[in-house]
Amino acid sequence: MSTKRNKLKAADVLWTLFIAFLVIGVVYPIIGLIALICMLAPVVVGIIKGKRIWCSNYCPRGSFLGKLMQNISQRGKPPKFLNSTLFKTIFVLFLLSNFAIGIIKAEGNLTQIGFVFVRLIIITSIVGILLGVFYQPRTWCTICPMGTLSNVAIKGRKKLTSIEKKNDNNSMQHRGQCDQCPLKDTKQP
Question: Which residue ranges does the record annotate as region Disordered (predicted)?
Fold first, then answer.
């Protein structure tokens, strides 16, 4: 008989992979290329599922911050600006710009590109730890660029879905009223 308490969740294990990634990434920077999975996954999963499932269940850094900070965090209230669209947009653009500059400077060298990923993750993890100490354990998740992009993708998906539904409803309402409609001569329900 399985209970919630006995059930092992991905988040219970993923934090160890995050630590391993950081340690191995410093020694073998090419391993940093694996970070692409964690950068793309929240957006892809968000588009497919329509929710931030990756962030809450499968993000190694989120798991790490949740485990590490749970007993250290002062659990203060985060500043409101961290949740503002303007701040998140500027933060995403800042990090992606630095990331792009690093990739360009690497000139196609995979080891150097891997190091760009490792360096970015180390720096942002330090920010995440500091936020976790002063505020909530996973305050980083509020400003995480991939979580922000995931939210944008989810909103885009919802907008497209509502447009498709609206178009389907409109086409159903006018069925048989067009000269080319094969249902023109049939009775309408």
Answer: 168-189
